[in-house]
Amino acid sequence: MDSLTALSPLDGRYANTVAPLRNYFSEFALLRYRILVEVEYFIALSREKKIRELPKLSLSVEKKLRSLYENFNEKDARQIKKIEKITNHDVKAVEYFLKEKLERLGLKKYTEFIHFALTSEDCNNLSYSLEWQEGLHKIYQPKLLQLIQKLKALAKRYQGISLLSLTHGQSATPTTVGKELAVFAARLSRQYKTLAKEVFLGKLSGATGTWSAQSLAYPDVEWVSFTKKFIHSLGLEPNLLTTQIENHDSLAESYHILERINSILLDFTRDVWLYIMRGVFAQKKKAGEIGSSTMPHKINPIQFENAEGNLGIANAYFSHLASKLPISRLQRDLSDSTVLRNQGVPLGHSFLSVENILTGLERLVINEQRINEELGNHYEILAEAIQVVLRKVGYPKPYEKLKEFTRGQMITKETLRSFIQSLSIPEKEKNKLLKLTPRTYIGLASKLINFIPKI
């Protein structure tokens, strides 16, 4: 497929960035996971002593069987898709493909134990949970962790740089650049830990979740115990109470976590955009790059804008996945099938967003001159400090006095000093206020980076 003719930007314009996810969420990857499940199930059946018709396989045969998914290639995938054109059933095509492979391994006598007593959902739910779990753990989470560590480093670097706050878009009590970055590092760290602890479920209990066919064929086998052991061997947790489908609640839980992560990142990208607009951050020039087709001076914050757009797309997908997948009419309907195939799409947009944010952060340069100019133009923000000290010393109606003096007024350093000098308060407190500037009125902000949760 040529990236120029791809329908989705993930497979076109952004193909190189999201390429690592193809190993987990492509059609090729899904086929490989299905083969993994079917092969491991076949091996597990062979190890069950009470299933005498399928003797225990030798280690060498097990190794050859596992090579079917370990060495799965494009030729194999195309063969499965060729079979599917006849069966019009994707899981049955995998079953027939594996039966052909078993015959070549001299195991023709045992081919009917491929997909034995299973429904397609038994293979599918385990495959989808495995691809999701491994795609998260191996690709997305390391990238998110990289971003969190970057934010922590920037928070530490800028922990002492004062910054004018804006609440309701109006000048407010100063903070520090580092503290504001630490807020996002802390929020993301909490969600990262929640995502890392998420447990994904799987079922292997037949057509309606009752092990009916298995129990009929081999009533002496402890099928619940067998299932627990098998699903644990795949790295998943068994769900023993299901209909035909695994209810996807655990997948939905993780989609919701990712929605929250993306919402935090949306908040962050918009804040950074505004800091760039204010001049708090400048952006490094990149040779040959053009910001506008008509305005030569521009360096646009395109990485953060790109991230914002992709985070919105991702959350629209995650919202639908999380609300749709746990719902299935009675014991089974198939409306989840086509939806579940798309779970890699929002993760792709999420991954792309994190990559863009990391790229954007590398281009940011702190503009202390602009920051100090902003602070110096807003001495009215010290009204809070003054009225609190006046409350402390028992001054009558301090809030009201500061409100009358500052609200809607242009307050300069000189006018504020004159006001402080006119106050009848103890000299110690007066001197404290006279020494105060917007740049130094930051409370504990420079120390708060120490409260970023450890991962």
Task: Explain the overall architecture.
This protein has 455 residues and is mainly alpha-helical. The protein has 3 domains: 102 residues, Fumarase C, Chain B, domain 1; 243 residues, Fumarase C, Chain A, domain 2, CATH 1.20.200.10; 59 residues, Ribonucleotide Reductase Protein R1, domain 1 (Orthogonal Bundle), CATH 1.10.40. It is built from 19 helices and 6 strands. A two-stranded antiparallel sheet has the order 1-2. A two-stranded parallel ribbon has the order 3-4. Strands 5-6 form a two-stranded antiparallel sheet. Helix 7 runs parallel beside helix 14 and helix 8 packs antiparallel against helix 11. The protein starts with 14 loop residues before the first helix and ends in a 20-residue tail after the last helix. 40% of the residues are buried.
Keywords:
mainly alpha; 455 residues; elongated; two-stranded parallel ribbon; two-stranded antiparallel ribbon; Fumarase C, Chain A, domain 2; 19 helices; Fumarase C, Chain B, domain 1; Ribonucleotide Reductase Protein R1, domain 1; single chain; 3 domains
How many domains make up the 3D coordinates?
Answer: 3
The ordered H/E elements are: HHHHHHHEEHEHHEHEHHHEHHHHH
The tally of strands reads 6
Strand content: 5-15%
Topology, pairings included?
Elements: H1 15-18, H2 22-25, H3 27-46, H4 59-70, H5 74-87, H6 90-104, H7 120-157, E1 162-167, E2 170-176, H8 177-196, E3 201-202, H9 212-217, H10 223-233, E4 237-238, H11 249-278, E5 281-283, H12 302-324, H13 335-340, H14 344-363, E6 364-366, H15 368-376, H16 383-392, H17 398-406, H18 413-421, H19 427-435
Helix pairs in contact: 3-4, 3-6, 3-7, 5-6, 7-8, 7-14, 8-11, 11-12, 11-14, 12-14, 16-17
